[in-house]
Amino acid sequence: MESPSPLKPLAELASNRFRSVPIRPGVYVIYWVKDGKPVPVQRILGVDERGILYIGTTRGEKGLRGRIRDLWISIEIVRGHRRRKKYPHTFGPSLVYTGLHNLIKDEELRIYFKEFSIDEAEYQEKRAILEYTRRYGEPPPLNLRVGRQYFMMLNLGVVGKSRPVGKLDPDLQTALGL
Predict the structure, then answer these.
(1) Less CB within 10 Å around the terminal CB: N or C of the chain?
(2) Which bin fits 157, alpha (ψ -120 to 50), beta or left (φ > 0)?
(3) First-to-last C-alpha distance (Å) of the chain
(4) Which pTM value belongs to this model?
C-alpha cells in the first residue's frame, strides 16, 4: 500500500519554520527513511517495513504545527543545538533512551500528518496505536509512554471518559500500512 500523500522530510519542514504544517489538530506519524527507502524496524510479531517510529497527536490548543515544532525542538536538544532543561516532546528523550539518536540522522526522519477535530484526533491516534500494536505485538518503538489506558477502549474504557471508537481513518490506515 502507498501512503495517501508523500512523506515530508522533517528537517525540511523545520527549515521553513513549519509554515506548511496546519495549525489545526490532527494525527502525525514519524518514519525512518534512509537513501529514499524505509528502514525496516523489527517488532515482536514481525518487521514493520514502513519504518514507523512514532504515532502522535496534538494535545490542547497547539495544533499540528505547534506539536511538530515541539518534536523538532526535542530533537535539537538531543543533538546539542538548543539548550533547555525540559523537553517539550517525548520524542527526544525516547531517541536517547532507545539509543536511536546515534543511528538516525535528522534528514532521515519523515512525517505524515492529517487534520482532525480535537476529539477525533485523540481517538484516531489511540486507534492507530491499537491497530499497529495488534499487527506488530507492540507500539511503535518511540511511543514509550503508551500505557494500558490506550488499549482500554471499545466500551472497556474509563466510565464517563471513554467512548467507543469507530474504524481507523482510511488515509491513516493506508499511511500505517494496516
Answers:
(1) N
(2) beta
(3) 9
(4) 0.87
